[in-house]
Amino acid sequence: MPRDTSEEQTVAQTGEFGLIRALTESREQPPFTLLGPGDDAALVAAPDGRVVASTDVLVQGVHFRLDWSTPEQVGRKAVAVNLADIAAMGALPSAVLVGFACPGDTPASVITGITEGMWTEAERAGIGVVGGDVVRSDTLVVSITALGDLNGLPPVTRSGARPGDVVAVCGRLGWAASGLMVLGRGFRSPVGVVNAHRYPEPPYAAGPAAASAGATSMIDVSDGLLSDLGHIAKASGVGIDVRTEALQPDQRLQEVAAALGADARQWVLTGGEDHALVATFPPHADLPAGWRRIGAVTMPESGVTVDGKPHVTEETGWEHWKTS
User: Fold this and answer.
1) Does position 321 have pLDDT exceeding 50, yes or no?
2) What's the confidence (pLDDT) of residue 302?
3) CB 179, CB 193: distance < 8 Å
């Protein structure tokens, strides 16, 4: 049940500067942060001399629901989905900046709770929340800008895969899609799969590790494994074949699928929002710890296949404004 916030102080009652103080006071910044909140802009170390940057916007009712997730879980998700993009470039996260837009009658505890979750996830990645902005709007919106450092290595883009490369993944697949279906059916358990939807746990260190191991391309699994591999295939001008024997659903997913009358294998292949990392490596590369082989890069421009059979990636995964 959603908690009763009717008697709580609102954002409008707290005021802009009171809210900013509540969001920024008593926070310790890590070494990457040279100057944190309180001035016109933050100052973040960039040892490599290049900065990797990414932005995501999360809208209430589209990306999260406060009757399904706590504010803290929303904050964790907002940071995690951005830092996954940084890791997918082979970079170390270095900082995040936050933008809030919300109605004036939003309970202040919702915003402070989201901020608490942001700090929890930022600290998991070893970074800080270095600044941001708060404004009035008709809908609760959370915007995150994430920064990262390449540590002297080339960025790992989507366009470097070559025929013969190994395709490998690090992280869970299918769990967030399973949790979404559970919530959509009106249940709140099993907690493990439900929480996978509420806030993903990307393997941040796996991105830089893959870059060090010579990864030729990489992407985070936000729209679904096959759909995101399709982005690599298109950008690289190659085909990609995944093998289902290497993608057996976790036993827990199989149990949930059986209870819901769903297909756990489809969750693994097409379910989004897990923010695992998938990459291609040279044929004889030693895969870093936590990475497992799931397929191979094939002939140029032959698309994504599953066990050698064509698969239409355009029909899988999430896409904004898609009508069917």
Assistant:
1) no
2) 81
3) yes
SS3 77: helix
φ, ψ of residue 310 to 5 degrees: the values are -60, 145
Closest CA to 142 of 74, 90, 214: 74
Which tokens is 89 given? 């470039």
Residue matched to tokens 């309970």 = 107
Q: What global pTM score does this model have?
A: 0.92
The per-residue pLDDT for range 36-92, each reduced to its tens digit, is 998 999 999 999 999 999 999 999 999 999 999 999 999 999 999 999 999 999 999
Q: Write the DSSP assignment of 151-176 as a string of letters.
A: TTSPP--SS---TTPEEEEES--SHH
Q: Per this entry, what is the length of the chain?
A: 324
Q: Tell me if 114 sits within 8 A of 75, measured CB to CB.
A: yes
Tokens in use for 299?
Answer: 């002939």
Close Cβ partners of 307 (under 8 Å, ≥ 6 residues apart): 241, 242, 243, 244
Can you tell me the distance from the alpha carbon of 262 to that of 259, in angstroms, rounded to the nearest whole number? 8
Average pLDDT, the chain: 92
Using CA atoms, how far apart are residues 297 and 165, in angstroms rounded to an integer? 5
Q: What is the 3-state secondary structure (H, E, C) of 80-149?
A: HHHHHHHHHCCCEEEEEEEEEEECCCCEHHHHHHHHHHHHHHHHHCCCCEEEEEEEECCCCEEEEEEEEE
Single-letter code of the amino acid located at 300: P
How confident is residue 22, by pLDDT bands cut at 50, 70 and 90? confident
